[in-house]
From TrEMBL:
This is Glycosyltransferase involved in cell wall biosynthesis. It comes from Granulicella mallensis. One of its GO terms (cellular component) is plasma membrane. Residues 7-168 form the Glycosyltransferase 2-like domain. It is found in: Membrane. The keyword Cell inner membrane does not apply.
Amino acid sequence: MSQKTITIMTPCYNEEENVLNVYNQVREVMVGIGKYEYEHLFIDNSSQDNTVAILKMIAADDPNVKIIVNSRNFGHIRSPIHALFQSRGDCVISIVADLQDPPPMIADMIREWENGAYCVLGIKRTSEENSLMFWLRKQYYRLAERLSSIETIQNYTGFGLYDRKVVELVRSFDDPYPYFRGMIAEIGLPTVKLLYDQPARKFGITKNNWYTLYDIGMLGIINHSKVPLRLATFAGFLGAGLSFVIALGYLLAKLLFWSTFTVGVAPMIIGLFFIQSLMLVFLGIMGEYVGAIYTQLQHRPYAVELERLNFDSGFGYPKPNPVALNGITSGNPLVAATANVPSPS
C-alpha cells in the first residue's frame, strides 16, 4: 500500500511579508514528521503587491510548492474553496498566510488523522487580536449556535485538517457560495478539536473588514436557520396584537374622559416610525435569503485562474534546507525579497 500524501493549502492576498515565513515554517514541520510526501498549494487572489513574485521564486527552488493565481479578486469565500478542490492529497490542511494559525499544530493534526479522525479542527481558546473583536466573534458564534438547525462549531475559523472523503463530500454540496465551516458541521464525520491560542499578526494588515465579517456571519446564519424569517412572522402577529390592545386602550380612555383626553400627534408618529423600522429590518432579512437564492441560481465558477505553476510536478518529501530569498530565511522578508523583484503586472 502506497504512502499517503498531504496537501497544505494557503490562500493569500497581499501577503508579501508573510508567504516566505509560512512556507518555511510549514516545511520545517514536514521535515520533522519526515514520512509524508506533500505539496504546499498557494492560491493568490490577484494580489497587488509582490506576493506572486515571491511565490514564484519559492516555487522555482521547491517543486513541492504549487501556485494558482486568480485572474481577479474572487473574495474570501470562493477563492479558498477553489483551492480546496484543486488539492490532490489524501488529506488537506488549511492554514492562513498571516501565521495566526500556528504551523506546529500541523504535526498534531496529522497524528489525529493517523488515529482515524476525518476532521481535525483548530479551535481558538484565546486570541491576541483586538479584545472587542474577539468578544464580538464569540457572541456571534453563540447566536449562530442558538439559531442553527444543526450543532455548529464555535470559535472555529477553518484552520484544520480534512480527509479526502470530507473534501469530496464538500464538493458534493455543489454550493457556488459555500459556508465551509457550516458544511463541516453538517457532514458530522468523526472530528477531533484541538485548542490553541491565536497569536497576533506580525506583518501586514488584516484583509477582513466589517463587510467581509458581516458577509460570512450572515451567510453562516441563513445557510443553517429559518429562524430569522419566522421571527418576522412572529413579530408581525405580536405587533398586530399590541397595536389592537393599544388602540382599544385609547378608545376606552376617550370614551371615559371625552372632554379631557386627547390622543396627540407624538404617539402616532413614534408608532409609525417604529413599525416602519421593524418592516425595513425584516425586509432586509428576507432580502438576504433572496440574495442567497439568486447566488445559487447564477452558479458561477468559484474562481478563474490566470496561471498555475508546478502542477506538473508530483508530491515530494520536504526540502531539508529553507528557501532563502537574497539571503533572508526568516523574519520579515519584504526588504530583501522584493528589492529586485518587479511587481506582477
